[in-house]
Amino acid sequence: MITGKVSVVGTGPGSPEHLTAQAKDVLFESDLVIGYRLYVNHVAELIEGKEIIASAMGKEVERCRQAVEEAVRGKKVALVSGGDPGIYGMAGLLLQVVGEEPEPPLVEIIPGVTAAGAAAALLGAPLMHDFAVISLSDLLTPWDAIEKRLHAAAAADFVIVLYNPRSRSRTDLLAKAREIVLEHQVEETAVGMIRGAGRKEQQKWEVTLENMTCCMEEADMATLVIIGNSRTYWQNGKMITPRGYEL
Question: Of 67, 87, 113, which residue sits at a domain end?
Fold first, then answer.
């Protein structure tokens, strides 16, 4: 009988204040913590003295297999994942790996504060109506598919949240996304950008589709871009998407 388990723990956007009480409890009770080095560092104070396996970006499958193997041996494993583990995180991949096991360990998914939620709160209230979340990373998703989703979301007048807008090797995808949205929205459409939400190095930009080119080169993998719908506007430094209430 397998007595161990894997808990996929959402660590939030990076600030200790955004870590939930449940996540803290699970980390405290774990025997082993596994994760991407950056996310492990975010919770370093909470896991001091524990067994830790930290690895680089691109080792996601390996981390999941290690977590399952150690849980099968009876350990309580915390697999840390930035933001919410079910949103571009480790939860889905872990469940796929667990599905290959003839006698799978117990799995629990501990939700976390999403990068989108944290960025939205810092910008104001841009997600008060229907919105679409799209990653611009074409490492696991073909650009053709991303392009179709951008066209569909912009044409349907969704607020659009862009994850992974720019990296060292992918410097032009945010510019391409902007051009696609401009085919469906006006240049005055409100846009907010947050880099490092909740972290010491946090930066914020209040722009529009027209002038966001002034800061696009500042964007990186830790940046969230929120493009408003046709009714979103900036007011006193806050990005607002009305839901339809009459004032």
Answer: 113
Range of the structural domain that residue 230 is part of: 116-240
Count of beta carbons in the 10 Å neighbourhood of residue 234: 18
Domain boundary among 113, 138, 170: 113
Distance, CA of 179 to CA of 61 (rounded, Å): 34
Provide the sign of the torsion angle of the four alpha carbons 55, 61, 63, 66, taken in this order.
negative
Which pTM was predicted? 0.93
On whether residue 127 sits in a domain, the answer given is yes
In order along its 247 residues, the chain shows pLDDT tens digits of: 677 999 999 999 888 888 999 999 999 999 999 999 999 998 999 999 999 999 998 899 999 999 999 999 999 999 999 999 999 999 999 999 999 988 899 999 999 999 999 999 999 999 999 999 999 999 899 999 999 999 999 999 999 999 999 988 888 999 999 999 999 999 999 999 999 887 878 899 999 999 999 999 999 988 999 999 999 999 999 999 999 888 8
Provide the number of structural domains found in the chain. Answer: 2
